[in-house]
């Protein structure tokens, strides 16, 4: 599989300070694919989403949808 040039990729940032530190993006679009990674149940203030697995999974899905949009 050949790789597209780096400038052909679109990156979505979540604003996390770890993105620059570790060199990742919340989502990367290359062609017709969007790859999402590094999504955890973290609130805007950096705290963990309160609640159990259901609430935390819902928060992860919110973050993923925002990155794709």
Task: Summarize the structure in words.
This protein is α+β, with helices and mostly antiparallel strands and 69 residues long. The chain is 32% helix and 16% strand. The chain has two helices and three strands; from the N terminus they run E-H-E-E-H. It has a three-stranded antiparallel beta sheet with strand order 1-2-3, with helices on one face. The two termini are 27 Å apart. The mean pLDDT is 84. This is RidA family protein. It comes from Altererythrobacter litoralis.
Structure summary:
InterPro entries: RutC-like_sf. With 69 residues, the chain is of the alpha+beta class. The protein contains two helices and three strands; from the N terminus they run E-H-E-E-H.
SSE topology:
Layout: E1 10-12, H1 17-22, E2 27-30, E3 33-36, H2 53-68
Antiparallel strand pairs: 1-2, 2-3
Key structural traits:
alpha+beta; single chain; 69 residues; 3-stranded antiparallel β-sheet; 32% helix; 60s Ribosomal Protein L30, Chain: A
List the secondary-structure elements in sequence, H or E.
EHEEH
Distance between the termini: 27 Å
How many DSSP-defined strands?
A: 3
Counted up, domains total 1
The pLDDT mean sits at 84
- Rg from alpha-carbon coordinates: 14 Å
Report the portion of residues in β strands: 15-25%
Quaternary state reads: single chain
> Largest beta sheet, briefly?
3 strands, antiparallel
CATH first level: Alpha Beta
């Amino acid at each position: 599989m050949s790789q597209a040039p780096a400038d052909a990729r679109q990156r979505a940032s979540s604003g996390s300070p770890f993105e620059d530190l570790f060199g990742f993006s919340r989502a990367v679009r290359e062609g017709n694919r969007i790859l999402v990674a590094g999504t955890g149940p973290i609130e805007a203030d950096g705290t963990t989403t309160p609640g159990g697995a259901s609430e935390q999974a819902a928060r992860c899905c919110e973050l993923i949808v925002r990155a794709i949009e």
